[in-house]
Amino acid sequence: MKLCGLWLEDKENSVICTACIRRCKIGVGRTGACMTRKNEGGKLYSLTYGHISSIALDPIEKKPLFHFFPGSHVYSVGGWGCNFGCGMCQNYEIAHIVPGLRDEDALSPEELVSNALERNADGMAFTYNEPAIWPEFVRDVFKLAKKHDLYTVLVTNGSSTKESIDYYGPYCDAYRVDIKGMTDITLGRIGIRGIDPSEILEGTIWARDRWGMHVECVTNIIPTVNDSESELRAIATWIRDNLGPRVPWHITRFYPALRFRHLMPTDLPSLEMAERIGRQIGLSYIYIGNVHTQRGENTYCPRCQALIIEREGYKIKQNLSAMGRCTRCGELLGITASDTRESYRS
Ligand code: SF4
Prior knowledge:
The chain has about 350 residues and is an alpha/beta fold. It has three domains: about 1-45, no CATH class; about 55-295, Aldolase class I (TIM Barrel, Alpha-Beta Barrel); about 300-345, no CATH class. Helix content is about 25%, strand content about 25%. It has an eight-stranded mixed sheet with strand order 7-8-9-10-11-12-13-14. The protein has a three-stranded antiparallel sheet with strand order 1-6-5, with no helix packed on it. It has a three-stranded antiparallel sheet with strand order 2-3-4, with no helix packed on it. Helix 2 crosses helix 3 (about 135-145) and helix 7 (about 230-245) crosses helix 8. It is globular, with a radius of gyration of 20 Å. The model is unreliable at about 340-345 (pLDDT under 50). Iron/sulfur cluster binds near residues 20, 23, 34, 37 and 133.
């Protein structure tokens, strides 16, 4: 157990957790909705600080992040618990169970970063479960990772409060955020209740504009749930108008899981429709993921249409960008890479 950094005192020894936009009011002896933060004697403690459920050295493309150090490898770490309740969760075993965790089994930030360096990782990511519920660990690990010149990535459902983003923001380089839907009705259909989607959108803008994080958005397209033309149009329009047309939008194929096992996987025409909508709206970089297509994962120059990065699965077959520019026409592509790193967040 570790004393949390993000909470407020409330009446009669209750506390308000300010880590995520649920802002749970938690009475003495109780935990918040994520089950990982507990009020002990009028103070809020993280039950999961340093408790790791999963670790892997992944290609950065697997997050997916396509415009952030392409071809690099990221030490990817997950913990326990979640604050949403998505019907299609692929990580249910780690996202919804907090087993009997013992303090002596927790890893320190030093151990984790040293493991990443031993594996020759280029960066460190919190992923697999929702990192917004343990901002204290995220901040401590990222702070140390930056000292060792590792880049840092948050793969998130976008539920951090602005206070929380300010807390880890100085040490976080990239924010890979799910934009699952634009209304609480859509989120409710997915299984996420009591969340105002506008707070997810505002947090994303905050991460980018206040802290200069590299942002990429993902929409997992679930048949009959969030695949209507109007929903997809609204998401693409929001990205264009608030983050800019050069922010990548990954539209990914849904596979049946958990409570959505009765649904079919997203068919290719639906993904292509989403891509078409994104192009009509004016987005420059739209990627189709979780399914093999001829060009869906390649990066093309938005100005001269030259093939810049050719991908096959998570592998880069060729990368023709230099200093973040198209080598044919010189267009600035919005790709952060080792040859653009010095200017990044300067
Ligand atoms: S992280 Fe979110 S869900 Fe968990 S206790 Fe805090 S406000 Fe509640």
